């Protein structure tokens, strides 16, 4: 990564897209380490995380992750996902967050020096170009080492810097021991959780123990979200 200590940086994370890329590369992300990595490299102003939720579920397995991120330095942007059944009778969910992300990038542009976009979606090429005209540098974090590549070629070429997610892995991945521990904790937490679960005294550490394991299970449920499809930018 090429950053400057005096740079004001904002992260914009397309949650489903980043999860899909990391899973294709065979690792899980430690979001605390991710924040710490960028704080060491620059003046981190804001970290946005975008995801869609199926609101009519009695309990969403994504909720522990969202709560943990919300309480630990991330600005959460969510909206209801649309669930439907296709002609083959398969359950599908759509939850595109492109507009929300684009609006936030444009609003933040006057206040920052560097946008870091965690997405490979080619639809963002014009957004990157518009922000660059305002004098803001843009780095795109995605991967060319998945099959198919997660990043659209036009987005990669437009960015000032392309950061290969696999090369970031040593700095942001979760170690195996922590993963196994949190998965075990996540089973018990999910069993006792519900839509009215308390968000008070347990809001930091306890939710942190189960956030990543719950996220993995939740994202597996949302494989049909169009932003998680590695071929989305080819359509």
Summarize the structure.
The protein is of the alpha/beta class and 235 residues long.
Verbal overview:
This protein has 235 residues and is α/β, with parallel strands linked by helices. Helix content is 42%, strand content 20%. The protein has 9 helices and 8 strands. The chain has a 6-stranded parallel β-sheet, with helices on both faces. The radius of gyration is 17 Å and the shape is globular. The protein starts with 7 loop residues before the first strand and ends in a 14-residue tail after the last helix.
Descriptive terms for the model:
single chain, 235 residues, alpha/beta, 6-stranded parallel beta sheet, two-stranded antiparallel sheet, 42% helix, 20% strand, globular, disordered C terminus
Low-confidence stretches: 185-235
How far do the termini sit from each other? 30 Å
How large a portion of the residues is in β-strands, by DSSP E? 15-25%
Counted beta strands: 8
Q: Name the overall outline.
A: globular
SSE run: EHHEHEEEHEHEHEHHH
